[in-house]
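Protein Record: Sequence and Backbone Structure Tokens
======================================================
Tokens: labelled as protein backbone structure tokens, with as many entries as the chain has residues.
Task: work out the structure tokens from the sequence, keeping to the layout shown below.
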Amino acid sequence: MIEQLFNLLSDWLLAPAVALLVPDSYAGYTLYTLETLVKIAAIILPLLLCVAYMTYAERKVIGYIQCRIGPNRVGFLGRRLWGLGQPIADAIKLLFKEIIIPAGANKRLFVMAPALAMAPSLAAWAVIPFDETLVLADINAGLLYILALTSLAVYGIIIAGWASNSKYAFLGAMRSAAQIVSYEIAMGFALVCVLIAAGSLNLGQIILAQNGGILHWYWLPLLPVFLVYFISGVAETNRAPFDVAEGESELVAGFHVEYGGMAFSIFFMAEYANMVLIAVLTAVLFCGGWLSPFQGMPVVGELPHLSEPNILWLLAKTSAFLFLFLWLRATFPRYRYDQIMRLGWKVFLPITIVWIVVISGMVVAGVGPWFN
């Protein structure tokens, strides 16, 4: 359906416009560029909308868990509509707030830092496969590309803390950077386990290697690594209970304490965009991506709408992992910094190293149904 809509847009709008306005020698390149821009917009715009409404979902879910109502006033056209207009109202408010740059700050780096924090979480979506054909860049080194880009986000945080010329911001940046780097190592070894299991760095091939049903997905043979990856993702995004960089009683607001207006909102959006990215990667690497959980089952698996691979399965799995992010924030108290460092270095890192050896032995031995 999505491919058909794109083909109609290309054939009936983009191609005639290019033929009319661009010389023949440049028409092919121009059409290819426009089609790529349309694909990028088709990924980025829904993602930004999802990021905006994740803030609404978080406030509602935590409100229900804590026996509160959450936002329910701001709606559209005079109707409350369960408060669905709240993210738009927040965005308009932040657009009109003044951005104040501290007098002693490095102004160029101060302005660049939010973009450096946001850009990797958006660029990583270039290699995310939504189904067997829906992917912007189907590159063979997709897993390596993801690992490289997600490692760059720490630079925006460090630069923001240093450029603010504030001791609180700098201390928050150092704590956040140390936490991100620590858990990035565990996540990297978890990705090595997936690479060994699938025998490919291509995300689409990793999903296809899990073909066969819910018991064929990698969450089962890689269960300890699966848990390590998701919990490390929670820590890497500075989410509760690992949000020591934003411990209000200690650091006011952490590395972005000097930011306001849209500059602050970009850091806020980067956190939620990273949440969505971690959730979709968990679904792709360990839970079969777009594959149906009912595939291969005796009765349910014979129903075409339930057994066929579909982008809706990927969205459903991603939504489930995003709900876990919100549930964890509403449930657990904040860890101490020494507890977080101990968990990353003394627990998660040894588990992933041991499981690399275990999964290598399983692959060599051809343990079924994953590696036979």
User: Anything to note?
Assistant: Residues 46 and 229 are 25 Å apart (CA to CA). Residues 24-65 form the longest helix (42 residues).
